[in-house]
Amino acid sequence: MTKKVKLALLAATMLASSGAAMAQDTTLTIESWRNDDLTIWQDKLIPAFEAAHPGIKVKFNPTAPTEYNAVLNSKLEAGSAGDLITCRPFDASLSLYEKGYLSAVQDLEGMKNFSDVAKSGWSTDDGSATFCVPMASVIHGFIYNADALAELGVEPPKTNEEFFAALDKIKEEGTYVPMAMGTNDQWEAATMGYQNVGPNYWKGEEGRNALIKGEQKLTDDAWVEPFRQLAKWKDYLGDGFEAQTYPDSQNLFTLGRAAIFPAGSWEISVFNEQADFKMGAFAPPVQNAGDECYISDHVDIAMGMNANGKNLEAAKTFLNWVGSAEFATLYANALPGFFSLSSHDVKMEDPLAQEFVSWRGTCKSTIRSTYQILSRGTPNLENETWNASANVIKGTETPEAAAERLQKGLASWYDPQK
Amino acid sequence: MAVEQTTKPPIRWHIAVFLAPAVLVYTAVMILPLFSTLQLSLFSDINNSQVFVGLGNFRTLFGDPRWAEQFWNALGNNVWFFVIHMLVQNPIGILLAAILSSPRLRMRAFYRTAIFIPTILSFVIAGFAWKLILSPLWGVAPNLLDLVGLKSLFQPWLGKEAYALTTLALISVWQFVGIPMMLIYAALLSIPDELLEAAECDGITGMAQFWKIKLPLVLPAIGIISILTFVGNFNAFDLIYSTQGALAGPDFSTDILGTFMYRTFFGFQLQLGDPNLGAAIATAMFVIILIGVSIYLFGIQRRLRRYQF
Description:
CATH topology of the domain at 59-120 and 175-301 in chain B: MetI-like fold
CATH topology of the largest domain in chain A: D-Maltodextrin-Binding Protein, domain 2
Order of helices and strands of chain B: HHEEHHHHHHHHHHHEEH
Distance between the termini of chain A: 71 Å
CATH superfamily of the largest domain in chain A: Periplasmic binding protein-like II
Order of helices and strands of chain A: HEHEHEHHEHHEHHHHHEHEEHHEHEHH
Largest interface: A-B, 43 and 34 residues
Oligomer: heterodimer
CATH class of the largest domain in chain A: Alpha Beta
Structural class of chain A: alpha/beta
CATH superfamily of the domain at 59-120 and 175-301 in chain B: MetI-like
Shape of chain A: globular
């Protein structure tokens, strides 16, 4: 008797809930680590999509960047993840695809608008399958306080010599901290230090591919020299930079107390909001005037769909839209500093963003050297590089010793480097 | 029915009923996860499926020089973290309790509350507050030192390998010194006055009274505090994570078992998580704590002399 009642109740609730779901619009949930972008998604991107696609509602559901990977993995395992997944580049997403959590998307209409390089961050090693639609890349360089440099009569440097001459002059004058960076959080030292100035020495893609093939070693001069440059930075950082965090550095710069900020282009929107002085940017300095220049133009963010999601059709519609010219323009302008990877001709309004993206025309682009394939094993090359770069800047490890240690770690699991 | 009840002693169902909620909840949230962690550490992820590898994860952890180095580094740091607590937190706790129990002290309730309050703060609040206080850019510490002309003594304490761990241990001491203080204060209050009067009649007063009468009487409480400190320190994670992040900088000098386990289990940045190896570390932590607690229970607690009043 009671069993029957229970069954009936159960059936009733299931019918009721499925009935309700059918009457509603389809709702897509986006998983993301970009909690900074919440308002942009809610006010600009989602309304634009919903206006064009009635019947589909979209919810942006971000987590803190440092927790994203762990949270996403647990949600996918538990089957509670959203329909759309913001993809980290390379192995983090590749492993999700291999575990069957992400669907292949290479056949989508919107994917036609992306080059192979743009897709490289989210494709299998042989390039046969792509599992996320590329959204944006970030470019490294140096942002400077234009008012401060003008006041001191310092020109934005082009070569290494000019770069250190400029830093010396700012330091001598004493009003400004020459460069805003700390080593407390470690990643800035690697990302905005090593990966920023490095491509000029290892010649971008040429060196990066040679490293993957095992033709070059991290102990070669081209890979040690960036560390030697970093070792010189120590004298130009603020007092107690060892305990200075990333937000500390950002504030130091936007409050106008520092002259130069080793940056990624993602800083642009934050700095535009907070700094009330004129800003400019210069590309990582080359060794000699007239040398070919290389920049880190790193594939950073993409979007894929949850293979076990309930609304696959709607998710496909959304991903096609992510590949469209409309999305590229909206996104690049809402978030200056995140540059579209698509082949659409995207017009950007922000002068600082234009400066960054103009380097694509004059310099050769590459991606961060440690991201593709080389960070697959233990010890993890990227995480080791954070630690090594921070040590080199603090002066607790020599550039040669740091390179030696990285090479040894890489060779311990990566066959081409053995 | 009634006849049966009079002949047999009734089964005392109420005991089971009253125990059930606690037993069920404790089993669900503590015992099952503990055993599934132990089980997880015996498996490994090979081609996306869980394969039984016996003690393979432990061989990696202790045999592979890279993992072993990190493990021993974390364990060493953890021991230092514990040593600082034992050397600083507990003596200060005892001292504060002794001062608080002095009958001549005024505003006792205020001091007691003020010293205890940090204990109820969240780790994250304590961590961030101290990080700001010690910040070389906006911190209070460099400015205060400057006021008395000692700016040259200031160091970015949280950023130097030599000081970071000790600084963090002292922050933790600041936060938790209220607990030993309260426990020992309570123990001191429970010493009967007759005993102290008898001591006075025998000419034992002042400091001598503390060393010869009071301290031996509160030793069991100090033992309990030591073991609580031990378990707390070897399970610590929050303070380091909230101030230094999962990489426990600078250069892993503040890496303790908790952060090492977190990094391995959940992964960090490009390093993917390895739940199996993480579980192996968690198991090692469990064993270390188990050994420590056993040494205390069987080696020390039995030898402590207790006094009946």
